[in-house]
Amino acid sequence: MNSQDVILGLLMHHSLSGYDIKHKMETFLSYFNNASFGTIYPMLSKMEKEGLITKESVMQEGKPNKNLYSITEAGQYQFKQYMYSPIENDEFKSDAMTRLFFGEFVEAHIMVDVLEEFLNRTKVNLERLRQLYVDCQPEMSPTQEICIQIGIHNSESKIHTLTQGITRLKNVEQK
Amino acid sequence: MNSQDVILGLLMHHSLSGYDIKHKMETFLSYFNNASFGTIYPMLSKMEKEGLITKESVMQEGKPNKNLYSITEAGQYQFKQYMYSPIENDEFKSDAMTRLFFGEFVEAHIMVDVLEEFLNRTKVNLERLRQLYVDCQPEMSPTQEICIQIGIHNSESKIHTLTQGITRLKNVEQK
DNA sequence: CAAAGAATATATTGACTCGATATATATTAT
DNA sequence: ATAATATATATCGAGTCAATATATTCTTTG
To answer: What positions does the domain Transcription regulator PadR N-terminal occupy (chains A, B) (predicted)?
Structure first.
């Protein structure tokens, strides 16, 4: 899976600009997939050259012009090839957890700060996902619902573990 | 956080070779951080040039020679700089969840396969983490314990959501 | 005993990706 | 007015991965 597969998936419903794609990814996919403009724009150029998508320049009122990209039949075929291919391993990279792993080398109060910051960020993320679920549930596919439930339950379990951990670490600190 | 910070953290306890570092990362950190040889070896060369680590060639019996790297005072200082710096955002990239998100474009039985494969991999991962916890708990720091608990609870919550989801999707399929 | 496979060990390359930066227009708020 | 925000595209350096290459030693298996 690379950004090409995700872009094709997003174009299956509607034609989109590079900017639209970034926005959609941030809104709906960011808790398990994301791409920067530095990935999206060069990839769109490459995909157009390969005939997976077509570009159309669209004039807009009150906004700069945009390049609207549409998926071709070759693109649809390529997307299905991806969906039938073997599943790749998940990769989770967490700076907060890396710090927890090396926590013994700094003062305990620093690690309490890391835990509390990690907890807050997880809470913010959970609220966003819950709101997204409320807003989009009617038009979500069954597998999309599983997807967001995994995100929500994951956040909830992290909040639980972190809250417990903070209490325990503060007790250790006081003794 | 980049691979330099993780390598320095691993060298805080013992001197290690590039190969040792890869092995340690896979055993203890792989559920939230990882690096390939293509990252580790060039990074070690760079860090040696910068005086963060020193290299020593060690003869071994029954094994090829190895380059043993040790952290310098400058390296220890650099590592603490990292530990006191602002926390970066987590990034989670999941191919399985990306497929779930786009599940509407392929047959339901394909998505059942994706869910079952995802479930199995999560179960394998959970077992590995539980075993690691049992094996290492006595020598783990308090924050390392929180770290692995997050990993274990995360897997457990995913297993729960996936199991529910598979049942629901199979019911939808039969109707 | 020979051959194959696994483990140890280091290194390189191409492709992918991110974050920062640059540029430009239009709308909204102060 | 002018600052900030939203829309929109593009590029570059740095970091990273997966695959590949090379070489030695130990273990297993036929």
So the answer is: 7-80
Question: Are A42 and A2 a contacting pair, CB within 8 Å?
Answer: no
DSSP string, A14-51: S-B-HHHHHHHIIIIITTT----HHHHHHHHHHHHHTT
Would you state the structure tokens that stand for residue B143, as one six-digit string? 């924050």
Per-residue pLDDT, B172: 76
| pLDDT tens readout for residues B57-104 | 998 877 778 999 999 999 999 999 999 999 999 999 999 999 999 999
Name the residue facing B101 among A115, A147, A162 (closest C-beta): A147
Q: Are A17 and A68 in contact (CB under 8 A)?
A: yes
Strand C close to A88 by CB, under 7 A: no
Query: Alpha carbon A121 to chain centroid distance?
Result: 15
Q: Give contacts of B106 with chain A, Cβ < 8 Å.
A: 80, 83-84
Rounded distance between C-alpha atoms, residue B175 and residue B168, angstroms:
11
Query: Shortest CA distance to B97 belongs to which of A44, A172, A92?
Result: A92
Mark yes or no for CB contact A162/B169 under 8 Å: no
The string of pLDDT tens digits covering residues B96-149 is 999 999 999 999 999 999 999 999 999 999 999 999 999 999 999 999 999 999
Tell me whether residues A33 and B87 touch, CB distance under 8 A.
no
* Mutant choice from B1, B90, B120 vs A, greatest count of A C-beta within 10 A: B90
> Which of B97, B148, B159 to probe the A interface (max A CBs under 10 A)?
B97
Distances (CA, A) of A78 to A15, A54, A72: 17, 14, 10
Nearest to B165 by CA among A155, A138, A141: A141
Measure the CA–CA gap between A18 and B94, rounded to whole angstroms.
22
| This prediction's pTM | 0.95
* Separation between Cα atoms, residue B148 and residue B126, nearest integer Å: 10
| Averaged pLDDT for residues A37-48 | 97
